Every structure is written in structure tokens, then in C-alpha cells.
DNA sequence: CCACTAACGCTAATAATTTGCGTTAAGGTG
DNA sequence: CACCTTAACGCAAATTATTAGCGTTAGTGG
């Protein structure tokens, strides 16, 4: 992945923005296996060497873009109760990530030599942590975030990645209710 | 991945063997990001064009090699009882796959455009199925293979891939005993 | 043993990546 | 606010990887 930007403003930031935007546009138009660095460079209006120097190679650039897309911009929806909070978050997450674009983001992140994989799952942990704290603030008993990762998130991500079975909303809800039910 | 070989014998098979062996050797010596097709070609004694024509590109070749390494060669060890069969199989599997080489195989498989991901997890399902049948042959109650994939395999593979926590034998054993305990 | 053709080797053309070097502009300092 | 330092850039040349054409080799089935 890109090393942290040492300079945050001006030209450097404009290039980062233009390149990221271009990658997202290309990803929506064609298969990732057809995308090349020179192609991105031309569309974004920067020389290829700038991309190579800054991101290293295509897989690191794709991982960087994927990670940015996954970065939390808002907290999960507040539905009023812990069970429905978790269910809503998980069903939405699974739907978003089981698309071709979503699975592609996972592949890019896992194919990169950087630490983007660990970062990516920290985002999910962070969201679950938010839901846990919210529940406890309501006086609900809360839940173990690690256990939720193992029992809910891991199976969903596994099936998305290995494409061995369809990840349906019903399947997700069953995982959630199994997790919540197995506690009492 | 490589299309199925139309010709199984002679020269074609020798090349496949030489290339696979070379890839495994290189993988043991250096980081995968340093490996190139021309490098493999020279060491294996074949022209690069042959590799490109047959495997398409490097990621498909790596996925092909990874899949071959994961292909079951023997049934899981028979320890005399279902619980210890599952535990032994899972602990061994986790240990093997949590190495850098193991994680690399997953990355290669997930980064390929072929169906190698689904095949890879079918291998695991097949092994679990073997254990289930063996247990039932002994008069034991058996277990749900799908549930074992969700509750045992998925969390292990998730943590290996996303590198968010160490997958220790104790952790694996806890997953197995949780799975078996939650049934009675 | 012969015919058929998949798969190969070689080579030339094309495309991607790396590198050196001069230039621009961000961010800090007096 | 002008100046200094240097990260990051643009350009272009050199290197390396990939693709494609075409004749050749050698499995496979008859």
C-alpha cells in the first residue's frame, strides 16, 4: 500500500484524489484483470511513473483504494435495540460485500503486501464495538465483539471469498440469532 | 488457472511438473512479490511464452500451484474417536496454513480469476465429510459438515487471512470443543 | 505406423515497469 | 512574507515483461 503521505496538501493530495477516483471509475466499468497502471495514469492525467513511485504496483494501489472505500464514514444505524442493530449492520454489510465489487475489494486487500488486511478487519471490529457500547448505554447486557467476529463475520466473509455458497440475508440473520441465542 | 490439460502424457506433463516444482522452490526461497514468469521459465528450462500460453498469467499459475499443494493426498488421521479426529485435523490444518507459505497459498487462490477458491474449500469439506462418515461408521452420532465449516474452519481461515490475531492450537481446540459441546 | 492437431519453441513486436535527473511546490523558519 | 529544504513530481531513456505469428514437435486415436 501507499506509505503514509508525508505531504498532505496541494499537488500531492490532488493526485491521490484523481488516481483514486479514476480507479473507482474503471473498476465500475471493466474487470480488474483488464486494468493497468498506464491506463489509470492516462485517465487521471498523471504520468505512470508517479503512480509506480507512490504506490509501488497495481495491487498495492488497488488495496489502497479498497481500504479507503471500506473506511468507516458513519456509525452503524441505530435501530433502538441491540439485536436489530447487529442484524441490520450485518445484513447490510454482507449485501454490500457479496457483490463482485465487494469481493474484489477483499481480493485486492488480501493480495497486497501491506497491512491493509488487518486494518480492514479493524474497521469491522470498530463498528461492532460501537454497537456493543451503544447497547450497554441502553442497559442491555452487551456482547463479546471477538465472539461476534468468529461466529457471524468470519463465516460470511469466508463464503464470500471462497464462493462456495450464496450469502443470503436469511443466512446472515440465522448466524446473528444463533450468536445471540447461544449466550443465554 | 490452467485450463484442464487436454493432453495428459509426455512433454506437456513434464513441463507442468517442472514449472510447478520450480514455483515451489522459488516460493521457498524468496518473497512472492519478487517472482516473475521469466524467472520461473529460465529455472524450469522452458520458454516464457509456453508459461503464458498455458497458464495465462502469474497469478493464475500461482493459484494452480497452490491448489495442487492443497489437493488431498491422504485422508485425515484416524485417532479412534470423532472428537479427536476433528481436533487433530483442524490443529494440523491451522498450523500448516498459518505459515507464510500457507497464507500465500490462500492469497494466490483468492487472487485468481478461476474457480480455484471454491475448489480449495471443497477439499476441506471433503475431509470433514470423511471424518463424519468415519464417525458414523463407528456408531457415533456424526456432525453437520456445513456447521463445522462455519464454526471452526471459517474463523481460523479468517484470522489467517486478515492477520488480526494469532491462530494458536489452543484457539483451534476451543473452537472444536465449542462446536462439539454446543450440540448435546 | 500414419494422420491429425494440441502444445511447443523461437522470435519479433508491443506493453509495462524502473531509473536517473532536472523541476516544482509544500511546509517549516527567521 | 521571503527564503530554504526536500518530498514529490514530470519527463524520457533503459530495462523488463507480455503478446502474437509461425513453423515444428510429439501425444493420441485410428
From TrEMBL, chains A, B:
InterPro entries: Homeodomain-like_sf (IPR009057), HTH_TetR (IPR001647), Tet_transcr_reg_TetR-rel_C_sf (IPR036271), TetR_C (IPR011075)
Alphabetically ordered keywords of this record: DNA-binding, Transcription, Transcription regulation
Keyword Transcription in annotation: yes
Record domain HTH tetR-type: where: 13-73
UniProt key word Transcription regulation: yes
GO MF annotation, one: DNA binding
Organism: Neorhizobium alkalisoli
Upper lineage: Bacteria, Pseudomonadati, Pseudomonadota, Alphaproteobacteria, Hyphomicrobiales
DNA-binding region per UniProt: 36-55
Protein's recorded name: TetR family transcriptional regulator
Pfam families xrefs: TetR_C_11, TetR_N
